[in-house]
Amino acid sequence: SVTNFLPNGTGLGGSATLALVIIGSLYKLKGRPFNANTIIKQAHHFETIKQGIKGGFQDYIGSYFGRLNYITFPSLQSVDLTRTPTLGQKIPALLTNLLNENMILIIKQTGNTSSGQIVADEINNFQLKKRLQSLRLQTIKACNESIYSAILADTSHDLQWTNLIDESWQAQKKLSQFVGNGLIGEIETKVKPLVKAIRGPGAGGNSL
Fold this sequence. Notes:
Layout: H1 14-29, H2 36-50, H3 58-65, H4 93-102, H5 115-128, H6 130-153, H7 158-173, H8 182-191
């Protein structure tokens, strides 16, 4: 049996981590070797196909490698994840210190909206307002690419990339009516003066 105290639906990738741990443990129990490509794809298959819980590779990659992950989604199925140099990349010490000093993690224990409901809402909004939603998606993409480039170069000022994080998050919140509202909105308002950037992890951004 497995016991954990992480609430469901927080967007923190708990189910992906659990799948990786179970499959990795079974490999070790049988004395069989495994690598990133083997365990990530099997854990993803186990959860999405065998259990019918839809999701992407991002949670599994984050759980397996830790650190900074730059992910190109369309090619992951055919890519050997063990040989992908942009996965599991170490964050420069400057940014690690900045995150440690300025990041606050808040888990909302009750009333989480499922990521599936949020994704369905985003798709519906996109169908109704394609031009507007396309602009927001382009903003998110551009911000994330700039953040990644700044981290690799390690030449960016703190304020530059933290402002990009905020800009990306503000655009992401507008994709769904369920993200960044209610309690989360209140928490953001209170936390904002204390940190340089706010970003919600996971598909729904139900955590800060």
